[in-house]
Write a structure and sequence with these properties.
By secondary structure, this protein is an alpha+beta fold. The protein has 16 helices and seven strands. Strands 1-2-3-4 form a four-stranded antiparallel sheet, with helices on one face.
């Protein structure tokens, strides 16, 4: 029968000389001596039903003394009593000492600063959703710990939506670039497309050949739809008509101001701040739109917005036109922005207008960066011809074989 030998009590005199084994020292502290003579202090504890270990360092002559190790164990027990994991707390302190931060908190601070330069509520809302929702898997990681696989995992959740995935990658890259600028991570950026992601990401489905990813109405159905709009007297209908005939973006019409309109010259001057690509924009107004705006100006209820909200001091909601479009058309898939595609398809299928002028009507400046730099002309007369032709087509009364009844 083999007798069990009792391990000696560890004291300040013998902790440097005891043989291999693990020796309890009180307060969850252990002296761990390896067969090769190495010795270290370890703190054992239980957290959420899981037994964990936390090293305190070397127990050799040049390392931590027994009394100091016991003090560390007591401090760790105090943290446990407060519901704090001592190992995570220690790691957090080390990271803070090194200047590292969590991606989540840094990204949120970056977002709040970055969005001050964004003009449209929709763009700010999109940025917020990407940072707070789509990028949530990155929130728990330290900035210096994030590698390409972390970025790939986020992008794969939205990869089949090219517009969202592209914007998400660009935002992650900008956040990590900002972290690099603050010396919070190494200079390499794991969200760089050419060097990191392009070689490993799967191929995305190709986008349509016609510009715009928004569901659009068939241009052949537009005249009937415009007649339906003309039969209602709501502000939403008028705003939608102006949007369709000026080929503008929703936010541009939503925030249209009387001060931007030259009702005598028939020009809508958005300037630079009201445009998406930050290029000066002046839009010629088709006579149908100009006639409505002149009449509306005489009966205006707001001296600021053409389409005011309920308070008259704010513009109409950016969702107003979309809700009305779905309601009057009965098609939940249609979007207001899609009417720009309707125009583009009509011009392509039914006219011989120069493609460059057609694109200019949509405020798309064609060519590479060098060409764009020299394209400063507005081509107002040419654009008005295209837009007036489209407005005449859109507002033409649909042909019918039914003879109207005449009044007696």
């Amino acid at each position: 029968m083999q007798l069990l030998t009792q391990k000696p009590e560890i004291t300040a005199k013998n902790y440097l000389s005891v043989g291999p084994g693990e020796y309890p020292c009180g307060n969850n502290l252990y002296l761990v001596v390896s067969p090769t003579g190495g010795r270290r202090w370890a703190f054992r504890y239980q957290r959420n039903g899981i037994v964990k270990k936390m090293g305190f360092g070397s127990a050799k002559e040049t390392g931590l003394k027994l009394s100091d190790a016991k003090e560390k164990a007591i401090d760790a027990l105090r943290l446990l009593a407060k519901g704090i994991d001592p190992r995570e707390h220690r790691d957090e302190e080390k990271r803070r000492a090194c200047g590292s931060r969590l991606f989540g908190e840094f990204a949120e601070e970056w977002r709040q600063t970055y969005e001050t330069g964004m003009r449209h509520k929709a763009a700010r809302a999109k940025l917020k959703r990407i940072v707070q929702v789509i990028c949530k898997p990155l929130h728990k990681h330290r900035l210096h710990e994030i590698e390409t696989p972390h970025v790939v995992n986020v992008l794969m959740t939205v990869w089949q939506r090219p517009d969202i995935s592209r914007t998400t990658r660009q935002i992650i890259k900008k956040i990590l670039d900002a972290a690099i600028a603050h010396n919070l991570r190494p200079k390499d950026n794991p969200a760089d497309w050419a060097s990191r992601l392009q070689p490993i990401m799967p191929k995305q489905r190709r986008r349509g050949t016609i510009r715009g990813g928004h569901t659009a109405m068939d241009y052949k159905d537009l005249p009937a739809f415009m007649q339906k709009l003309a039969g209602t007297s709501s502000q939403s209908a008028r705003a939608l008509e102006v949007t369709i005939l000026t080929l503008a973006r929703t936010a541009e019409v939503q925030t249209m101001r009387w001060s931007q309109l030259d009702l005598d010259g028939g020009i809508w001057n958005l300037g630079v701040l009201g445009t998406k690509n930050e290029r000066p924009k002046r839009t010629p107004l088709p006579r149908q739109t100009l006639a409505y705006l002149r009449a509306a100006h005489a009966d205006r209820v707001s001296d600021d917005f053409v389409f005011p909200g309920r308070s008259l001091k704010e513009p109409m909601s950016n969702m107003t036109m979309l809700k009305y479009l779905k309601e009057i058309s009965g098609d939940e898939s249609l979007t207001v922005h899609g009417f720009r595609t309707t125009f583009r398809t009509w011009a392509q299928e039914e006219t011989d207008f120069e493609e460059e002028i057609v694109e200019h009507c949509l405020h798309h400046i064609t060519g590479d960066a060098a060409e764009k730099a020299y394209k400063r002309g507005e081509a107002l007369k040419k654009r008005l011809l295209v837009m007036q032709t489209f407005a005449d087509f859109a507002t033409e009364r649909p042909k019918s074989n039914v003879m109207p009844m005449r009044a007696a």
